[in-house]
């Protein structure tokens, strides 16, 4: 049973780079992860004997971002297609025109209420 929890934790840690590259993620959430990485790499610890403070910090980060990180490792996140289709005309052979409501009334005559 504990193996499953460890597996989920490792999957969530594995998708953090994808999470950081996604443009749809709020900057506050990205900063939380970046702060956690900097804190782990920094030589300053609140509890210098054992990296307990680092573990507690990452449990807090993973717990707060668990729903967002689960989207990535479960495959529910669709890729960002904005770069792939930028400046491309993907709808060919379609003719359209924009009709203003005022000009439409002039062409069809005044609107009448059939109930009168």
UniProtKB/TrEMBL annotation:
Alphabetically sorted, this entry's keywords are: Membrane, Transmembrane, Transmembrane helix
**Is this entry keyworded Transmembrane?**
yes
Record field: transmembrane? 31-49
Q: Which domain of life is it from?
A: Bacteria
Protein's recorded name: DUF1232 domain-containing protein
